[in-house]
Amino acid sequence: MNRKSPAHRRPSRRAAVAAGLVLAVGLGVSTQVSAQAAVRGPAKASTAAPQSVSGTSGQAVTRVADFYGAYIDAKGDYTDPDVTLATALRKHYLTPGFAKRLAAWEKKNGADGVLRAQNVPARWTVTDNGSMGHSHEVIVTLTFGSGKTTQKTRLFVLVERYNHIADIETTSAR
Questions:
Q1: Which of 17, 20, 80, 136 is the most buried (most CB within 10 A)?
Q2: Which residues pair with 144 in a beta bridge?
Q3: 148: phi > 0 → left, psi -120 to 50 → alpha, else beta; which?
């Protein structure tokens, strides 16, 4: 049997994934704070105040931050990415029409359409870009790499009035 087969996964891992999906999808836990708080690294002694995360139910910025935080966490485990969780998050947060367009974009470009990249960013931020008719535009800035070798990608995420992501582009719809 393959080491990564479902039969060999620990029950606690499955429970953690299920709990994460419930929190990310069902309760709308916010990850609005920049990804710097989520990046794992060596523990440092700090005198800085503890970081906090906040959000508002139904707010487009919070919704996009929730999606990107959970999606990057699901995709970011290079030894055992959680494809099932990433797929469930897409189904929950994306409009069906956009999900189809995104799949076609991914096939054509050979990259993850949500991240517009083949790898996972080390950090991300989510910023409000304002209302546009019945929609709302949110800017997601993804930072790939570390140290002196970083590259930033800005994505413009269009959220429809019922809080589903209807488009992700590299240029603003404004």
A1: 136
A2: 151
A3: alpha
Question: For residue 16, what are the CA distances in angstroms to 8, 23, 27?
Answer: 15, 10, 15
- Distance between CA 167 and CA 157 in Å, rounded? 6
Task: Tell me which amino acid residue 101 is.
Answer: R
Checking 71-80 for CB contacts under 8 A at 24+ apart, the result is 71/114, 71/115, 72/35, 72/38, 72/115, 72/120, 72/121, 72/124, 73/20, 73/38, 75/112, 75/115, 75/120, 76/120, 78/120, 80/4
CB burial of residue 54 (10 Å; 0-12, 13-18, 19+): exposed
Alpha helix positions (H), 83-132: 83-93, 96-109
Task: Write out pLDDT tens, residues 22-43.
Answer: 444 444 444 433 333 344 444 4
* pTM metric for this prediction: 0.72
